Structures are given as C-alpha cells and as structure tokens.
C-alpha cells in the first residue's frame, strides 16, 4: 500500500467561456500522505477551490477537467462511475466548503441533516443517527441535546463546528477544508482549528487545507503548496517553504506578513 492517500497528476481544468477556453488549473501534480495535513495557498482566483471541487467531482459547468488524473488509494476518481463516486463522497472524502456555516439547510433540524448523510451510507435508523450526532456534538464542544435545534439557533462559530461534525461523522480518510474559518473572528477561528487538529491527531485522517493565511497554514500543516495563476509553483515542508522559499511569489507572500516576536513552533502545534 502506498504511503500516499491522494495523488493528483498533471491535472488541467478549463472554464468554457463564450470567448474561448480559460485554463484555470495548469498541469498540477501533488500528493497527500496518510495522516498528513497538506496546505494549499495562493491568492483568490489561483485555482485552489477549483482543485478541491475536482477531487470530489462537484465541479459544475462551465468548469471541465480536460486532462490528468486524481487517484484515491490508486483509484482514479475522474474515471469512476457516478454511482461509485457517491459511495466515496462523505464516507471516504469529506468536504467543508467556503462559508460552511451557511451550508446547513435552515428548514431542517440539525439531527435530520446528520440522518441524511448517515442513512445514505450506512442505512442507520433515525435513533442511531441521532446517537451518532450527539456523539459528534460532544467531540466539537456543543451540548448534545442541541441536535434537535435549527441552524438559526446557533452562532456562526457553532454552525461551523456542526458542519465539521457532519463531515467527520462517517470517519472519512480525507477531509477537504476550503477556507473553513472565513468570516469568523480570530478567537473562534483558533478554537475551531484547534479542535480539528485534536480530532485529526485522534483519528489520523488526512487534510487538504485551503486558505489565504500562510501564517495560519504554517502552524497547522506538515507541507505547503503555493499556487499562482493556476500553477503549483512550489511544494515543500513548512520549514523549507517558510524559511527558504524557492519561488519569488512565495517570498513575496511571506514578506507581506507582519513579523512579530514569537517562539518557535512545530507543524500541527499552534503558537
């Protein structure tokens, strides 16, 4: 068995526009190891989220994967029949979307939204899915009895935790987190990411962590990839990318971060 859980090779993604094709992702190759937290950084529009949606094949027109492969444990997700892929989404690959706190259905109680995911993949009863929802609420620091509430009864940070809890309910091997704490204040952001880190260390799942915040990424991730205009211009461990960046764009990103006195830290440990 390979040490890599996810392998992306020579991925090209185009947007089919009236004026012609626009290549948003250009020949990107990367891998994510088992139990690894891999960060993908870059400015808005560089192709980070486009890659995330391609992994789960949730990209919609006018986006189109024009070349390359995305393999999970050796299986090419791009060639997999939709029926087989549906069995992998949530169960083996979970995703926390941008503005995740707005991803919950406002008309459904939270326990019903857990049940939708759990019943589809495991066939469990409502009683069993409620028990699992309560268990996940405990893990993310929310009182279990609140699974009966509606999304509007929770704060933004709590809704974010709920989405993460739903994502983790089936114990997937890979979690894709696309700007998971956008629009949250820094204190709540830190609390949520510390919880994610604790859960990752407990269960050993891999994470693709997408953000603009290089400083945050350096504290959370084992390796970092930097994208520029659809290309992956640099990949390395945190020490290499932060202290000895190869690409000029990476150096500019680090130089744009205000430098404050801080103690040294290791990946996966918040300073």
TrEMBL record:
The keyword Cell inner membrane applies. Keywords: ATP-binding, Cell inner membrane, Cell membrane, Membrane, Nucleotide-binding, Translocase, Transport. Its main location: membrane. Residues 8-254 form the ABC transporter domain. GO terms for molecular function: ATP binding; ATP hydrolysis activity. The keyword ATP-binding applies. InterPro entries: AAA+_ATPase, ABC_Ni/Peptide_Import, ABC_transporter-like_ATP-bd, ABC_transporter-like_CS, P-loop_NTPase. SUPFAM superfamilies: P-loop containing nucleoside triphosphate hydrolases. Pfam families: ABC_tran (PF00005). One of its GO terms (cellular component) is plasma membrane. It is a peripheral membrane protein. GO terms for biological process: transmembrane transport. It is found in: Cell inner membrane. Belongs to the ABC transporter superfamily. This is ABC transporter ATP-binding protein.
